[in-house]
Specification:
2 strands; mainly alpha
Length: about 140
């Protein structure tokens, strides 16, 4: 299984925007410095989050802001925004098993049922955690420092 790093970068960006967006103009360059990522990667992620309606970006001067309450932004919604087909890519099945082998002929059907359950469980788990939960955890950790 593989979860894309674009997802963790997106969550990082959203926390940063939430924490500093009221006081600073949050740009892709600033987010790139904070995340250690390329500004182009950040702009692509920001664009995806904007299309999903999670954030807005001021035209011309730049600066991002979160559009909705944090409780309405689930991790599933974030992941779907930056990796729309992540569930189908999450667990792959080798593409060319032998049709002449009894196992090869049936392996896709055998695995599909199990993998569908795993995808469903993951989907429900991602939907149950919100950006509000993540920001609260961030604040708890910040207070301990």
């Amino acid at each position: 299984m593989h979860l894309s790093t674009k997802y963790s970068i997106a969550v990082h960006c959203l926390i940063f925007i939430y924490e500093y967006g009221k006081d600073k103009k949050v740009t892709s360059e600033l987010l790139a410095l904070s995340t250690g990522s390329n500004p182009v990667t950040i702009r692509n992620i920001i664009s995806s989050l904007k299309k999903e309606g999670i954030i807005s970006v001021k035209f011309g001067t730049g600066g991002a802001a979160i559009n909705c309450p944090l409780k309405e932004i689930s991790l599933y919604r974030i992941y779907s925004a930056v990796e729309p087909d992540f569930l189908s890519k999450l667990i792959g099945v080798h593409p060319a098993p032998s049709p002449f082998c009894p196992v090869g002929r049936n392996i896709h059907k055998v695995l599909d049922a199990s993998y569908e359950k795993i995808r469903g469980d993951l989907c429900r788990s991602l939907q149950s955690v919100t950006l509000d939960d993540i920001v609260n955890k961030y604040h708890q950790i910040q207070q301990k420092l």
